[in-house]
Amino acid sequence: MSDQAVASKQLSAIATGICGGVAGAVSRYFKHFEFVCKFNYTSLFFHQLSRLVASPLDVVKIRLQLQTGRPSFGFAATQLFQQKILDRKYNGMLHAVSMIIREEGIRGLWKGNLSAEYLYLSYGTVQFLTYQQMQILFSSIGDGRDDKLIFNKTLQPFLSGAVCGATATVTTYPFDLLRTRFAAQGEKKIYSGLTHAIKQIYNQEGIGGFYRGISASVLQIIPYMGLMFGSYEISKKSFRLLEVSLLLSANSRVIDTSIIIKVGDKFNFYITE
């Protein structure tokens, strides 16, 4: 095996180990970023399929988050809830799934899925476009025309991530709110459909009703996405530098070996003469 191949395998092992550790953290947001970058009908199909599979978990998570009171278990707990003695309706994930199917049918596990699809697709699009525009902006500012305006290149991805995260959150927040409200409503329906929900919220709460809780979401997403994109760009640059250094080291060993072989051949030639 050549030294270049060994160097590449060493890089692969290092990259796999580090990337495996951060993959779970970045997948929630970068899956949308990469999806928009490499859009085609196949990726659209698998994106929709993944959302179809994951949607029931979203519904169960939201239902469990919203209920209060101490956990109780068993058939007696269900009866006490029905008699309004207990506040908790669900006593765990599996119990929540069975109760939702029993009371609302299998479709109850996919409540809010349509608005969730709009949310994830639009979020990824806005995020990608904003990030690209921020990169172009920083590139034009830092091209050497005015040294006073040149941003620290290390901070650029952090700032880009913070801005694109905040922009995408503000732009798509109504879909997030609709998804949560659909997932939260149980057997007793408040909204019969997406159009009805939009009309009801607008008539009863005004435009501000679509943005309830947005300040907390933006404050959460700014540092999160700043660190996420910053780590993403720094990791890419670090791996490129590591790859170059390993390949240069491998090439230098190949050159040294070839020189030794040539010198040895010449020495043997003179000895035989």
Distance linking N and C termini: 35 Å
Number of helices: 8
Shape: elongated
Give the low-confidence spans.
6-11, 16-28, 73-86, 266-273
The fold-level CATH name of the domain at 25-38 and 111-234 is Mitochondrial carrier fold
Q: How confident is the prediction overall: mean pLDDT?
A: 71
Structural class: mainly alpha
| Rg over CA atoms | 28 Å
Q: What kind of sheet is the major sheet?
A: none
Number of strands: 0
Helix content: over 70%
* CATH-level-2 architecture of the domain at 25-38 and 111-234: Alpha/alpha barrel
Strand content: under 5%
CATH class of the domain at 25-38 and 111-234: Mainly Alpha
Instruction: Give the SSE string.
Output: HHHHHHHH
Subcellular location: Mitochondrion membrane
InterPro entries: MCP (IPR002067), MCP_dom_sf (IPR023395), MCP_transmembrane (IPR018108)
Keywords: Membrane, Mitochondrion, Repeat, Transmembrane, Transmembrane helix, Transport
Family: Belongs to the mitochondrial carrier (TC 2.A.29) family.
Can you tell me about this structure?
The protein has 8 helices and no strands. The chain has a domain of 138 residues: Mitochondrial carrier fold. It is found in: Mitochondrion membrane. Keywords: Membrane, Mitochondrion, Repeat, Transmembrane, Transmembrane helix, Transport.
SSE inventory with pairings:
Blueprint: H1 3-37, H2 41-66, H3 75-82, H4 93-104, H5 113-141, H6 156-184, H7 194-205, H8 214-272
TL;DR of this structure?
Helix content is 77%, strand content 0%. It is mainly alpha-helical and 273 residues long.
